[in-house]
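Tokens help. Our protein:
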Amino acid sequence: VNKINAKTKEALVYKEKSLEVTQLLNNHIYWSNFLNWLEKNTLSTVRYSGLDGDLSGEYNFTATAKTYADASWQAKAFLNDPMTKEVSIKTVNSSATKDAPGKSSVNFNIELTVKPEIFKK
């Protein structure tokens, strides 16, 4: 009986640890999911230079595009994906590019809200 009680205690400890590991895996955050989603939904003419956000799904991006239309189309590209809850383009302005004198680029900020489940597998 003592041997069986000892084995039972070991089995219960194993079961508790197994439940904890399962919970950790179920709640694991996959940043790669978000980054892959972002890459898939970003226009080739848009470049990001800053990102601020957290696991709540709310992000602010600093971005550059070739034209004002590209900034607008970027918002539309995000809105076409079901993981997007909201998107808005803020503080749009034009500036000369350093690489090509005489050409300009459009700098803008994107406020993006995605569904938090994007982070879980």
